Amino acid sequence: MLSGKQPILILKEGTEREQGRDAQHNNIRAAMAIADAVRSTLGPKGMDKMLVDSMGDVVITNDGVTILKEIDIEHPAAKMIVEVAKTQDEECGDGTTSAVIIAGELLKKALDLIEQDVHPTVIADGYRIASKKACEILESIAEDVKPDDAEVLKEIAATSMTGKAAAANKELLSDIAYRAVKAVSDEENGKITVDLDNVKIEKKHGGSVEDTELIEGIVLDKERVHPGMPKVVKDAKIMLLNTALEVKKTEVDAQIRISDPTQLQKFLDEEEAMLRKMVDKIKASGANVVLCQKGIDDLAQHYLSKAGIFAVRRVKKSDMEKLARATGASIVSELDEVEDSDLGYAGKVEEKKIGDDEMVFVTNCKEAKAVTILIRGGTEHVVDEIERGMHDALSVVAATLEDGKITTGGGSAATEISLALRDFASSVGGREQMAVEAFADAIEVIPKTLATNAGLDAIDMLIELKKAHKEGKKTYGVDIFAGKPGDMRSKNVVEPMRVGTQAIKSATETTVMILRIDDVIAAKGSSGGGSGGGAGGGMGGGMPEY
């Protein structure tokens, strides 16, 4: 009699559920759509995307991670691919487009295997084996680079900017990136570490990209607090102050009753005396420049001006820390306890007009461990895109200094990995062998895409590339200007080894995670739900129409 009873509802009404092949197909197609969105930006002949958000703000960029961050993506599997780009950006700063394209291609090859009834966990195991082997192969073909090898490090910066707006001025910008990273790098026990937070990037549109410069010191987007203060201070003794130059207000609610006008005058005189005392303490310390994190009272400004002290107020905390590294000053919170050793030094502190704004330059520091890159450009969009190119360049130089290993670009490393993996596949055996071969095919997407974006025949290029590599020319990649394979090392197309290994690892991990999903349960109204979890070719609700 059980058949006559009501069916049991476990899931809430309106919940969408996809199981088995349908779920896998949908997830894989959504991820592939994301890869297709950035595919055309790869390489020197890559194109840019214009992204317009709901507020009408425009971003024009060639940077994979920026494109994917700006797109409003709805499909849950597609969001996982965006995470690949974000991880790549955090770890290496470059190679975001490559990582996403590899992930998309790995999933595409996996779909073919699933159609042939190879179980997803077998594919996942094969991919993991192949990923590990691919990183070993990459390490075996990597070259060592020394920290003082300026030419190679500049070439790495230039390669990361190729195809971006910054490429037109890559000699200037790669030199700036190299010098900036070198200035902020620290060496301890023979190991170099670079904290890129110590490189401050200031943007001001106006002028041209050629006016971009590296300032060995800090630039503050602020002006001095009083027009009577000197505009330029030479041999500046700098005090970094973390307390307000104002009369302290009581913490509790208190009232002061004044019954006599003379009392009021006394009260005001006392306030004035307190401020004068603060300024006297600064003067006594020997400081002639005060950079204050908090406010400076109008009267204190007047006294500082009279004393010929240059002062700036409301400096950001992050800038204060950079100033401390650049000038050697300590950030002080108590004026009574300021010692001579707390003051920093800069050869010159001056207020300059850049574009429409006044900016304060703290320069000529003895050993600036924090520097500023002042980026200029014709329009706001140009300046923003140059900044993204500069971020990539700084990151790759930092990664190379830290790891000391580089590989050749232009799809040469990918071709070498692909060939070596095919030889390795036969030793794996079982059905995993098919997955390793699929991985080898997927890696070839890099040289193929480079050729396609340059208007060359991808298949012909790949055949010629493989032929060159089999002849032992391991550094041969896609020379898009000659239209045939060329030696990437002699053309100075190089990148940090970390870019390649991270792209392979993060693409593989995300691919494996997506492959293992066989059931998508989407609550009504949640992302990926309602509309069938991104049905319609798995494009997801928020994909732009390119």
How many H/I helices?
A: 16
Task: Supply the CATH architecture of the largest domain.
Answer: Orthogonal Bundle
Strand content: 15-25%
Overall shape: elongated
Q: What's the name of the CATH homologous superfamily of the largest domain?
A: GroEL-like equatorial domain
Number of domains: 3
Query: What characterizes the major β-sheet?
Result: 7 strands, mixed
CATH topology name of the largest domain, in short, is GROEL, domain 1
Question: What is the average per-residue confidence, as pLDDT, rounded to a whole number?
Answer: 85
Number of strands: 21
Separation, N- and C-terminal Cα atoms:
57 Å
Report the CATH C-level class of the largest domain: Mainly Alpha
- The low-pLDDT segments are 527-546
User: Helix/strand/pairing class, anyone?
Assistant: alpha+beta
DSSP helix fraction:
40-55%
How much is the radius of gyration in Å? Answer: 30 Å
Question: How is the secondary structure organized here?
Answer:
Layout: E1 16-19, H1 20-39, E2 49-52, E3 58-61, H2 64-70, H3 76-91, H4 96-115, H5 120-141, E4 143-144, H6 150-161, H7 170-184, E5 185-188, E6 191-194, E7 199-205, E8 213-215, E9 218-220, E10 232-241, H8 261-285, E11 289-292, H9 298-306, E12 310-312, H10 317-327, E13 331-332, E14 344-354, E15 357-363, E16 371-377, H11 380-403, E17 405-408, H12 412-428, H13 432-443, H14 445-453, H15 458-470, E18 476-479, E19 484-487, E20 494-496, H16 497-515, E21 519-522
Parallel strand pairs: 7-16, 10-11, 10-13, 11-12
Antiparallel strand pairs: 1-21, 2-3, 4-17, 5-6, 8-16, 9-15, 10-14, 14-15, 17-20, 18-19
